[in-house]
Amino acid sequence: MHTTRLALVTIIAEPVLEGRITRELRQLGATGFTVVEGRGEGSRGRHAAEIPGVNVRIETIVGHALAQRILEHIAHAYFEDFGVIAFTSEVAVVRSAKYTAPPESR
Amino acid sequence: MHTTRLALVTIIAEPVLEGRITRELRQLGATGFTVVEGRGEGSRGRHAAEIPGVNVRIETIVGHALAQRILEHIAHAYFEDFGVIAFTSEVAVVRSAKYTAPPESR
Amino acid sequence: MHTTRLALVTIIAEPVLEGRITRELRQLGATGFTVVEGRGEGSRGRHAAEIPGVNVRIETIVGHALAQRILEHIAHAYFEDFGVIAFTSEVAVVRSAKYTAPPESR
Asked: For residues A56 and A85, what is the distance between their CA atoms, to the nearest angstrom?
């Protein structure tokens, strides 16, 4: 079974940001995403928004260059004012074409 | 603390497929699995089933050879007709015997 | 975008253990955590508690040394009597200071 290494980007944010972040992922070039609801606590006192409470975990699988652009965007747009965290991990996928938009649709 | 490297296999599928896929994971040799409910969007227009909507994220930790067999099965059984995605990542576990069935039970 | 490699620790446990485990994560030095609810099945007959049913997936991002201490604690405190599993994977984060407590707060 041929597999391709891609990056899984995980963004954990307040629920109110879900629609905005998933639209931005599409605009940056992600072909899909999943969202799971959870709860949690962040580092105390660092950010006003990092109070205990509900959050959404938004995940997308993309190429490594796009993963870097997504991290840069999330850090720039949200880290100052929101209790958002973002990280990447390595995954191996089957049928990598599912995760990469054709050039003409970018 | 001694740890063992195993493969975490993640399968994201329509909820209607949960029972069938988890039975198949057992038959292939997985000793356990977890299921989390979410929602998401896939690559637009590629598969009729990849409409926005709810999904289940099925995860199992297995040896690398079994992870390959699971990916092959999922690709063969579901990729043509369903909006299913499957990927693996590397994890380090404590007490690896929890994740590998004894030979006589296979 | 500068990223730092840290460890994502995942603990899957019975819901009744959530409060105890998250308090212990804080005491060990984790600066935050997230919790997602799911369901699942473990290895049959190995532990009385590993019956099919609901579970919580507790995740925390920490340095590698703390990840080892967390795995040791979880194995020691829970593996004998509960159907708990614990594993780590490698992640790359932006702004690693979010995940590491300042020395004076340890």
From this structure: 11
Question: Which residues in chain C have Cβ-Cβ distances shorter than 8 Å to B8?
Answer: 87, 89
CA C34 to chain centre: 9
Q: Which residues of A touch C (CB under 8 A)?
A: 10, 12, 36-44, 46, 50, 55, 57, 68, 71-72, 74-75, 79, 85-90
Whole-structure pTM value? 0.90
Which region among A50-54, B4-8, B37-41, C57-61 has the lowest average model confidence (pLDDT)? Answer: A50-54
Q: Report yes or no: B57 and B36 within 8 Å, Cβ to Cβ.
A: yes
DSSP symbol at A101: -
Lowest average pLDDT, out of C39-43, C78-82, C97-101, goes to: C97-101
CA distances from residue B35 to B2, B59, B92, C9, C38 in whole angstroms, order as listed: 27, 6, 20, 18, 5
DSSP string, C8-37: EEEEEE-GGGHHHHHHHHHHHT---EEEEE
- pLDDT averaged per 10 residues, chain A (length 106): 94 95 97 94 54 85 97 95 94 86 52
- Nearest 10 degrees: Cα torsion A44, A90, B19, B94: -70
